[in-house]
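look at this one:
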Amino acid sequence: MSSPSSTVVVGGGIAGIACARALADRGSAVRVLDRGRRLGGRMGGRTLHGRPVDLGASYLTVAEGSPFAPVVAGWVDRGLARPWTDTFAVAGPDGIERTTSGPLRYGTPGGLRSLVTDLAGGLDVQLERAVTRVGGDGGPTVDGDPAAAVVLAVPDPQAARLLDPGSAIAGRLRPAAWQPTLAVALGFAGRRWPADLHGAFVHDSPAVEWIADDGDRRGDGAPVLVAHSTPALAAEHLDDPERAVPAVVAAVRAVLGLDGEPEWTHVHRWSFAKPTAPREEPFAVADGIGLCGDGWSAPSKVESAWRSGDALGTALADRPS
């Protein structure tokens, strides 16, 4: 049961934890509810064959002068994050064509989830707590219990299931503007791809749009790749993701010119992997209910999710009593 004087944050990904952190650091009572067994949201992964593998977000970036920069610097100083690369390959279905440079990407020795867990230190977090209803009539409520405010730090389609469709805040949602992805981890007997691959953006493939060298970004050199499927392939196989694995494996082998099959694979379904039309606004609030996440503060990325949550938490903490 929540206290009427506490803000309840639904969703333990980086946006929800950033929001809760901002509230707590300003002296506001806050509780985080997440239906999963561990924090992380779409920065989550799995321990596969004795090592963490990122199956959601692949890396993080930070813009110069961003309020996120000191947070990332702190993670780097403590060894939780590490500078990875500013260069990726660009490939077509038949192989690598060129390289492209961009902002510095950061990886994590312990998986991106470890950053969310670190950010949540000291917060009141309740895991394996599935919320079924968020109301706003007569004040915000969570499953009938009153709260000072409620934050939905989850993808729009999930938020839509919790809200009254006729509420003001529900009108700010875009539940149809989200696309799925299947993340397939591939473990090989040895590294058979270029040492400077880092990752590859893949165009014109019916099966794969991104491949990450997980051993390279983690820093342990493990012969593990993670491929993200195209939205179309994911949509076709949401009910049975395992059936998509052969197509993903074949596409990865073709793109990287690999002559052997992986020793093991693991597939994870992300039904709402990313927004197709993230909003420029940092967040939305109506009737004591707020929305934040990577569907806000466009473009969609880890930094955007953190900035959205942090901005909403700050705004709620600064509200007149």
About this structure: Residues 302-317 form the longest helix (16 residues). The domain at 1-45+112-177+278-321 is CATH 3.50.50.60 (FAD/NAD(P)-binding domain). The mean pLDDT is 96.
